[in-house]
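**Paired protein data**
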Amino acid sequence: MSSMLQPQIILLKEGTDTSQGKSQLISNINACMAIVDAVRTTLGPRGMDKLIHDDKGTTTISNDGATIMKLLDIVHPAAKILVDIAKSQDSEVGDGTTTVVLFAGEFLKEAKPFIEDGVHPQNLIRSFRTAAYLAINKVKELAVSIEGKSIEEKKGLLEKCAATTLSSKLIGGEKDFFAKMVVEAVISIGQEDRLNMIGIKKVQGGNMRDSFLVKGVAFKKTFSYAGFEQQPKKFLNAKILLLNVELELKSEKENAEVRLSDPTKYQSIVDAEWNIIYDKLDKCVKSGAKIVLSRLAIGDLATQYFADRDIFCAGRVTEEDLQRVAAATGGSVQTSVNNIVPEVLGTCELFEERQVGNERFNIFSGCPSGLTTTIVLRGGADQFIDEAERSLHDAIMIVRRAMKNSTIVAGGGAIDMEISRYLRQHARTIAGKSQLFINSYAKALEVRVHLMEWISIPEVLLILLQTLYGSLLL
């Protein structure tokens, strides 16, 4: 009797929906497949771009898998995992975001019939992990090293890697032009791990071939006051002072009150503020710097003061650009103008202000450290330039990855076909259900070739591929 009167134990919050078993697994697979179908047609050189319009009215045109996945408003918890897969691939490798989503969906698609027939998921996962382990070892065996090759040979291979990445992008028509630019930019920064050392600046107008690479730092002219036009716009071997200091008169705080016992001291109070700003400016001039950059504002008084002394200044420089200038010129950002020693000043062979389209750019070249580069992108519409920037980011990431790992494999679905053939041969040596599971894994790897067949490959070429690799695609 006492056991019947025990209170009911509630583990989940009221209203929580619970679902489990085979039906939920099938539901999760179907949700993931719906997401995969949304990005499937963006793969490959003949892949189509997607136009995405969000609630804020922003229009994005892209065929980058990670970008599309981020913009999709996905609510299904299982399908959200595909977004995380694309983000992880984008941050770790930079390219192949559509491919990993496509592979994940294809593995689920191949697993679905087995789940419906009552196969336990753990048995599938065990075989898939075995197949993945075999595939990774095979890829390492087939990889070609770029170590020990001459600089020209290495650059040629890196340019092919970049061109492969760009071939499916919006700027694929100029892939050779941009591939050389990307390789040059990555080689220039050496072993520097910070990706922001390669800056990409966008200028609307012109065509893609008007884009250029600066071996140094370039950023758009910042907001300036009247005296700015009187300042020199070109220096050779100039000293550069980098500040995080405000060089302008500050207005008094609201309801500020000053009480004087002696009226004759009134003027000294008024002059004190001017003396403070003039003291700061005088210390900047005495440092010997011919270029003064600050993250904070440089007011009209300071602008005219520097112009009278043939010094260039720019205020409100972004934190990223200021850090890149510091890395390139060898200077360090100062939070005070007191005790400025020569060691904290940067230097560059040439500084100039140049007109690029409708924008004016401050360009630092011939920097001693050479650890920064800047790509100035030209193009038509904003959406086009934004997509070109994303494409270059992917290419830069791939070239950096190739330089660090120093091994590459053939693209265009060739490596997929070879691994599929290898796994199918291995599956014949296995008894039991695992043979079927590994065969399904091998079939899933052929999805890119199937997709290229659907998009552009003639049937004759597909039959040739079947003959070469000895695997049944159809």
Observations:
- The two ends are 66 Å apart (CA to CA).
